[in-house]
DUF559 domain-containing protein
Amino acid sequence: MSLFEKSYEVFLQQHYSSRKGERLRRLKEGHGHAEQLFIKHVWWKALGEFQYLHPEYEVKDFRDGTRYLDFAYIRQALKLAIEIDGYNTHSSQISRTQFSDQLIRQNHLVIDGWKILRFSYDDVKDRPRMCEQILLQFLGKYFGEHREGQGQVGELSVVEREICRLALSAEKPVTPRVLCELFRFGVKKSRRILHQMLEKNLLVAAGEGKQRIKCYRLHPAVAAWIVS
């Protein structure tokens, strides 16, 4: 079982155990194929963890009814709603009343302080890298403006810049061995550079280890600077 599969299973079980009744039923039935594709090929690729992410998140609408977001990312003051939309959902299969209701629903989310990102199922399936970059751009812009994790982005060394670009484009987390092969550094020097970049909030730990970090991913706040 891969790290993603283990982490995803733990993620779902945590939410299953914390819900009951309609909220549990909605999670089991509403978290379907499109949402699973997004989790695996967009969210996990971008962040490598599920902290602060809530699937099928319940919100109260302006009529005191209950609505569910595909995903909610709630971290400090940020409330980000993420929706995965299939083409059929917004085609001629819905009525004018339903179409208007969807727009009003989104407007009230904005009024209530939510940020919203919407992705089509086709983009998640066929262009996940583009979706990943949009997600990273949003998180980078938000946390950059709120001075969280910005680091010394404008004062990077040549090596740090290249490591950041590598971390953004790589399919797997960056490890000391990767630096050894790329820059011909020794293992100790590679570990020291990665640890320093972690302390500067340029990288975040990837994987399960907390005491001894073995692999790293790019901090979301730095990604916007690179892809912009």
User: Anything to note?
Assistant: Strands lie at 53-60, 66-75, 78-85, 115-120, 203-206, 215-218.
